[in-house]
Amino acid sequence: MTMKLILQGPGADMATLNRLAALAAPAGTRELSRHALRCDSVQADAATRQAVEAAALAARIDATFIASATTLADFGLLAMDMDSTLITIECIDEIADMQGLKPQVAAITEAAMRGEIGFADSLRRRVALLAGLSADALQRVYEERLQLSPGAETLLAAVKAANIQTLLVSGGFTFFTDHLRARLGLDYSNANTLEIVDGKLTGHVAGAIVDAEAKRDTVKLVCDELAIHPSQAIVMGDGANDLQMMSIAGLSVAFRAKPVVRQQADVALNFSGLDGLLHVLA
Fold this sequence. Notes:
Number of strands: 11
CATH superfamily of the domain at 1-69: ACT domain
Strand order of the largest sheet: 8-7-6-5-9-10-11
Helix content: 25-40%
CATH topology of the domain at 1-69: Alpha-Beta Plaits
CATH architecture of the domain at 1-69: 2-Layer Sandwich
Order of helices and strands: EHEEHEEHHHHHEHEEHEHEHEH
Shape: elongated
CATH class of the domain at 1-69: Alpha Beta
């Protein structure tokens, strides 16, 4: 199988990209932008890949080896995690900050994303700490702290232009996925519902928890509805609870992800924005 190598990074210069490209002995190269280079018919043996990836990491450049023929047109669904993927924050950590409990909640979040604590248990523990908080805190987090990750809108525009459906599937909360779905014109979403009584959070999640298995099953269900195979889905995530849905996808993308996720993903975007995926599939 003929492989291409995509080298890219927001601060990359073409001289550095060409130096890295030479390690893979490409048959030819093409500039995709001022900060991205496509290398065709590269050597892709284990030793070469390791050398390129190590040098690229040291230079803060993303290096992706992928089948040359793979393009955006091969896919029918883009499924994305929300917290720390589509958006830059972990919403529950910011909600907890309204209670003065961000360090405690963030520590549990980090352990869960590294795969050290089961996600469902970690979510229950974190949500319990929010009991009694005014539901107005959710709107404050959305308005004051939530920001899209770099390249999000560019990626979504290109995906929509290619008639690819979009799914936001999150272990976070429907308050935020519903707002983002409407704001960004996303096609599908699934997340957890915070229980609210008399305008205050109860410290409980209403209904079943959207954990790793539920995320995977959501991707499968949407693929079934679209009459496509999961191999025609791109799945993007950053934490351990994304691995199951990433494992069934045709292309898995780790975005600013934990090591356990980067190691298992087809594509790792450590420095580029979400729109770096467009260069990978160019």
